[in-house]
Amino acid sequence: MKLALGTAQFGMNYGISNKNQPISEEEAANILLLCKKFSLDTIDTASSYGDSEKILGACCLKDFKVNTKLKLLPESCKNTFLWVEQEIKKSLDNLKVDVLHAVYIHHPSDLIGPNGKDLYAALSSLKKEGLFSNLGVSIYSPDELSYLLESYNFDII
């Protein structure tokens, strides 16, 4: 079984234990030290998790596989490739890593919608360029999974 450290609490008020404010950089660094101690080497974050990517970037991530998720594709987006490229490069910069282990499509509706094929093509191209190693998708219902598996190939679900 593979486990990943979820980091929504690193950048926003989230969960049962931090309803007032995100955790501090110092606390984040201590959590990562514990992860390293217990051989948990995968981090799950998202650009939509407030400042989580920046807080993680302030810590040393060289011993971790870092996964992030794309925000919802804006309806006003005129150039899907450019938007995806900018989002991934912003995540790389915030996290202070050269390559991401995985980029997830956080909202499967983006692939089901009118720009789905362009989104997938952009991600596939950027994966080939080496910005990330694995393409993933978050799934919230069995119907989404069925449609997406018929239409696209993913490394991680």
Major β-sheet strand ordering: 1-2-3-4-5
Query: Tell me about the biggest sheet?
Result: 5 strands, parallel
Strand content: 5-15%
| Structure summary, number of beta strands | 5
Overall average pLDDT = 91
* Helical run tally: 7
Order of helices and strands: EHHEHEHEHHEH
Identify the notable features of this structure and list them briefly.
single chain, 157 residues, alpha/beta, 5-stranded parallel β-sheet, 7 helices, 5 strands, 42% helix
Protein architecture, described:
This protein has seven helices and five strands, in the order βααβαβαβααβα. The chain is α/β, with parallel strands linked by helices and 157 residues long. A five-stranded parallel beta sheet has the order 1-2-3-4-5, covered by helices on one side. It starts with a strand and ends in a 6-residue tail after the last helix.
Q: Could you provide a short overview of the structure?
A:
Strand 2, helix 3 and strand 3 form a beta-alpha-beta unit.
Write the layout of secondary structure elements.
Elements (H helix, E strand, L loop, with lengths): L4 E2 L1 H4 L13 H13 L4 E3 L7 H6 L7 E6 L9 H16 L4 E6 L3 H4 L3 H13 L3 E6 L4 H10 L6
Parallel strand pairs: 1-2, 2-3, 3-4, 4-5
